């Protein structure tokens, strides 16, 4: 196209001048255009999807290190006909846990030189395979600086000129001679782990139930490229960090019920002392049997258990009071039936639920409830919760983690043709998008999801003390458990019923119509279209729902259009599901859903080379090898190339002078 000076409007010229700072000469523009065009033709990078980690940091760590079987797959490709099964497994373990495994292996080998030679050769070959689909520059950036030069050299030597083994041997000889073989092996293992997966997607629920969500968060913060779709448990913690009393009460209850106070006390440095003192004062001599903690490690003493139950009851009652206040100030959320304390007949010890039926309460010792004003906190309860608000807001580590969740996270993500979201999209039974009105405006589908996310962000970022901030925090608790919340996607959360009513019928939490609707491929496509997606390789990816694999339930819905990849890390649920859940890998060849066996602990993983056994559930082979040009990154690169093309024109036609950035 022939351009004239007037082809560029002022805004375009301003942008080109900015770009000219980075590419100050015609040559530098041309070089970058060649580079970007080369990248477009490379294979698509590998994506790894995980969800519902629920604080199980050891299993999470192992899945991360093994990339859900992707490393083992490369080992098998290269060595299955040269090495035994046991040797392949040991090599895989070495890559996952190099420091620990090396120590063990070195204590057993007789010929150290031979061991180093063989191991380094194998690792370099794996590295070669793993890095072959990246540009040299990208690989270089991922290398540890101290070994960058030598690894780069090993990966890019032309072996038509060199004898491979001889060449390696010489380099390795030197590395051994200067006492750096161990370090070098560790560096190579880390490079393989770093490059095997380009991007990690966490489809929600990092927090609650398992032992140390804070450790998982630290690991995620170290990751080179991660995005997070907020789960209902995550948004609850984010609301707590923002200072929402109701979110804080719920976080405390979840943690106490699972007896995993380490996250709060050791992880985030938040003291539970004031709650313990309050619980001991008000609930010492009352029935707390319905509030027993769920899990018990061997070290838990009966006196700790009694205290936990008291604390759990004390915080539950605070939560139910705050729920009543929440529902009254938020009629838009339509959660009236979650108010229980005003439906209790305190003399008879019964309650009338929304279904009109009367139930006997299994616990009627409620020392802090005034039947005439049941949602009013007593002074001591107020003091306890106020103190927690300050300590949650003051926990530096919690604030750091939550800021990261806001930066890298969102309610949904559209990426490389897939729609990722933790729960579901609010829909009517007739497969239309459900409409909601907030402040007189109606939202549905994608616009609703965007709106809910924007309100949640206000809960953390709006001005301290402002109405907007407080309302935003209410949106966060709504997202945790509200009727039609896309993160929760169930009709109601029956926390009250689970503690106060024996009849398990009342405990049921009906799933949203979304789950029935998405059994149909056609309806999955309606959802995908709403998010701008179409074509054979588009999928919806959800977490949130543990799949009862042992009862024959499948994680694949909508004729393969929807994958539910609840990672099943949560130990408490493994009895029900029969497996430890699913993870997904999407590379240039296939999209592969793997089912995992429970993780047997780091020690066994290292000493017995025990991997998390994975079986492939579905592998969608792509009809051609996907290239970057076909992916989201390709679109961005093409747009960049277009801009560079314009800059080139501007240089060539004297519209912008070379090296003129500082003029
Ligand atoms: O099984 P638990 O830990 O008692 O928790 C039950 C509660 O957790 C929930 O399942 C929410 O957690 P998930 O998002 O992990 O499903 C609620 O629906 C339910 O009331
Ligand atoms: Mn969930």
Automatic annotation (TrEMBL):
One of its GO terms (biological process) is gluconeogenesis. GO terms for molecular function: fructose 1,6-bisphosphate 1-phosphatase activity. Keywords: Carbohydrate metabolism, Hydrolase, Manganese. InterPro entries: FBPtase_class3 (IPR009164), Metallo-depent_PP-like (IPR029052). Pathway: Carbohydrate biosynthesis; gluconeogenesis. It catalyses: beta-D-fructose 1,6-bisphosphate + H2O = beta-D-fructose 6-phosphate + phosphate. SUPFAM superfamilies: Metallo-dependent phosphatases (SSF56300). It is an enzyme of class 3 (hydrolase). Its EC number is 3.1.3.11. It comes from the Bacteria. Gene3D superfamilies: 3.60.21.10. Its cofactor is Mn(2+). Belongs to the FBPase class 3 family. HAMAP family: FBPase_class3 (MF_01854). This is Fructose-1,6-bisphosphatase class 3. The gene is fbp.
């Amino acid at each position: 196209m022939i351009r004239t000076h007037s082809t560029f409007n002022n805004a375009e010229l301003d942008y080109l001048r900015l770009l000219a700072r980075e590419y100050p000469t015609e040559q530098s523009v041309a070089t970058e255009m060649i580079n970007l065009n080369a990248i477009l033709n490379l294979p698509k990078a590998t994506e790894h999807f995980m969800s519902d980690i629920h604080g199980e940091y050891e299993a999470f760590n192992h899945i991360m290190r093994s990339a859900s079987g992707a490393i083992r797959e490369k080992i098998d490709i290269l060595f299955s006909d040269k090495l035994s099964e046991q040797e392949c497994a040991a090599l895989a373990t070495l890559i996952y846990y190099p420091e620990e495994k090396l120590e063990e292996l070195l204590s057993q080998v007789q010929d150290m030189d031979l061991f180093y030679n063989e191991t380094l050769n194998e690792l370099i070959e794996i590295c070669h395979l793993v890095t072959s689909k990246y540009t040299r520059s990208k690989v270089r950036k991922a290398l540890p600086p101290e070994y960058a030069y030598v690894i780069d050299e090993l990966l890019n030597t032309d072996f038509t000129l060199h004898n491979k083994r001889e060449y390696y041997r010489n380099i390795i000889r030197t590395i051994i001679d200067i006492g750096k073989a161990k370090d070098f092996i560790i560096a190579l293992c880390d490079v393989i782990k770093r490059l095997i997966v380009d991007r990690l997607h966490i489809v929600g629920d990092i927090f609650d139930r398992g032992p140390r969500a804070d450790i998982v968060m630290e690991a995620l913060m170290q990751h080179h490229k991660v995005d997070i779709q907020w789960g209902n448990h995550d948004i609850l913690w984010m609301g707590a960090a923002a200072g929402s009393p109701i979110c804080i009460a719920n976080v405390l209850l979840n943690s106490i019920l699972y007896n995993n106070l380490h996250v709060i006390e050791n992880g985030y440095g938040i003291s539970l002392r004031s709650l313990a003192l309050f619980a001991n004062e008000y609930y010492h001599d009352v029935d707390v049997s319905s509030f027993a903690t769920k899990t018990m490690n061997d070290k838990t003493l009966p006196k700790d258990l009694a205290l936990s139950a008291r604390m759990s009851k004390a915080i539950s009652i605070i939560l139910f009071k705050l729920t009543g206040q929440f529902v009254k100030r938020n009629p838009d959320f339509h959660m009236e039936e979650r108010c229980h304390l005003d439906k209790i007949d305190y003399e008879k010890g019964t309650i009338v639920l929304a279904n009109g039926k009367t139930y006997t309460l299994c616990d009627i010792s409620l020392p802090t409830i005034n039947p005439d004003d049941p949602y009013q906190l007593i002074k001591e309860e107020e003091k306890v919760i106020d103190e927690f608000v300050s300590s949650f807001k003051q926990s530096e580590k919690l604030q750091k983690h939550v800021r990261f969740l806001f930066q890298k996270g969102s309610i949904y993500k559209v990426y490389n043709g897939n729609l990722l979201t933790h729960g579901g999209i609010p829909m009517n039974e007739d497969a239309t998008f459900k409409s909601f009105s907030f402040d007189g405006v109606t939202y549905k589908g994608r616009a609703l999801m965007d709106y809910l996310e924007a309100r949640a962000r206000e809960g953390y970022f709006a001005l301290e003390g402002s109405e907007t901030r407080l309302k935003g925090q209410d949106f966060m608790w709504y997202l945790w458990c509200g009727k039609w919340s896309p993160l929760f996607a169930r009709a109601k959360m029956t926390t009250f019923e689970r503690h106060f009513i024996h009849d398990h019928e009342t405990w049921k939490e009906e799933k949203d119509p979304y789950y029935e609707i998405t059994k149909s491929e056609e309806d999955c496509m309606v959802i995908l279209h709403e998010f701008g997606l179409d074509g054979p390789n588009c999928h919806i990816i959800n977490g949130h729902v543990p799949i009862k694999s042992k009862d024959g339930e499948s994680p694949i819905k909508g004729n393969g259009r929807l994958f539910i990849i609840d990672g099943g890390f949560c130990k408490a649920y493994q009895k029900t599901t029969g497996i430890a859940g699913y993870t997904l890998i999407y590379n240039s060849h296939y999209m592969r859903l793997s089912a995992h066996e429970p993780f047997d602990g780091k020690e066994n993983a290292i000493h017995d080379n025990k991997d998390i056994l994975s079986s492939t559930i579905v592998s969608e082979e792509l009809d051609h090898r996907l290239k970057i040009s076909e992916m989201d990154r390709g679109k961005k690169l093409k747009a960049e190339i277009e801009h560079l093309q314009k800059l080139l024109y501007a240089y060539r036609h004297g519209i912008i002078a070379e090296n003129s950035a500082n003029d």
